[in-house]
């Protein structure tokens, strides 16, 4: 092979110049850095948002169980409050305070009671099938140091409601209108839930919390 032929072969080979390699490296680094920044931003957003979603779910679930009734707890089912018939159709009655009625034998309404350190955090009530002085209850309690909602059935057994662990306050009160009139058959329920947040852009942990309030018309307490 002649010298001219060798030079021609070498010159025909294709490759990257130093400038091209440097440009490709810079572009690749920028793409990786952008992808990492997006990942960190999404992780921080989720780390800060998920605790608030959790406390909101806890508070909503607590209100739903108290007002509309317990759907499943300790082997009990949501139809333990009996049934009623309209025409030829039988409807199951829920066991929430919305179905509360007057105490048998007197004209008192569901009773709101204070607990130690938790004013107005317990409500005692009757439903239509309950006999004598039997009362059901919803109240604030603790489980392993965390607040939760408890339901006391007519069998005298108390059940912690799953999904309510994390509430920090539960309050019952008679509804008062803007003119100051108090209604015995309308109950205001307030649930507070909190959660401590770690591992975000903040230098130290902090607490997120929500306060959910609803008013309940007691259908059978007139």
How does this model look, in words?
The chain is of the alpha+beta class. It has one domain (32-68, 97-217). Helices cover 27% and strands 36% of the residues. The protein is built from 2 helices and 12 strands. The chain has helices at residues 3-12, 18-68, and strands at 72-73, 76-77, 83-86, 89-92, 111-115, 118-125, 136-143, 146-152, 158-160, 167-176, 182-197, 206-217. It has a 5-stranded antiparallel β-sheet, with no helix packed on it. Strands 10-11-12 form a 3-stranded antiparallel β-sheet. Strand 11 and strand 12 form a beta hairpin. The radius of gyration is 32 Å and the shape is elongated. The mean pLDDT is 79.
Brief overview:
The protein is an alpha+beta fold and 222 residues long.
List keywords for this structure.
222 residues; alpha+beta; five-stranded antiparallel beta sheet; three-stranded antiparallel beta sheet; 12 strands; 27% helix; 36% strand
The profile of the biggest β sheet is: 5 strands, antiparallel
Kindly report the spatial arrangement of strands forming the biggest sheet: 5-6-7-8-9
Question: What's the overall geometry?
Answer: elongated
Q: How far from one another are the termini?
A: 112 Å
Structural class: alpha+beta
SSE sequence, one letter per element:
HHEEEEEEEEEEEE
